[in-house]
Amino acid sequence: MTKHDPELSRLFHALADPTRRSILSRLAATPAGVTDLADPTGLRLPTVMRHLSVLEDAGLITSSKDGRVRTCALVPEALEPAWTWLDEHRALWEDRLDRLDAFVMNVMKETKE
């Protein structure tokens, strides 16, 4: 496990913002145009474009331009590094909690005797 993975940092930075998570949820259903993504946010288009730029830099979305319409699509496999990191830490903490549980049960058993 590396201490500093720039790719993972960009990924979690992109996921840290609720607006960006909302955009990703919308794109999970189907690709969408930038204006369609901007409408429900209530944000101005330049602000949404900055959010989309962060998502694209993290590899979470791709965008393509057809004439004047820019369409964004989700890249689900980009979440794999986050899943891997979370799985590693879940296993680590489950092991620690199992050892703590065994310790507490042992102390309780000893105090009853």
Describe this structure in words.
- This protein has 113 residues and is of the alpha+beta class.
- It has helices spanning 6-15, 18-29, 34-38, 45-57, 80-112; strands at residues 32-33, 61-66, 69-74.
- The protein has a 3-stranded antiparallel β-sheet.
- β2 (61-66) and β3 (69-74) form a beta hairpin.
- α1 (6-15) runs antiparallel to α4 (45-57).
- 14% of the residues are buried.
- The mean pLDDT is 93.
- It comes from Sphingosinicella microcystinivorans.
- InterPro entries: ArsR-like_HTH (IPR011991), HTH_ArsR_DNA-bd_dom (IPR001845), WH-like_DNA-bd_sf (IPR036388), WH_DNA-bd_sf (IPR036390).
- One of its GO terms (molecular function) is DNA-binding transcription factor activity.
- This is Transcriptional regulator.
Quick take:
The mean pLDDT is 93. The chain is α+β, with helices and mostly antiparallel strands.
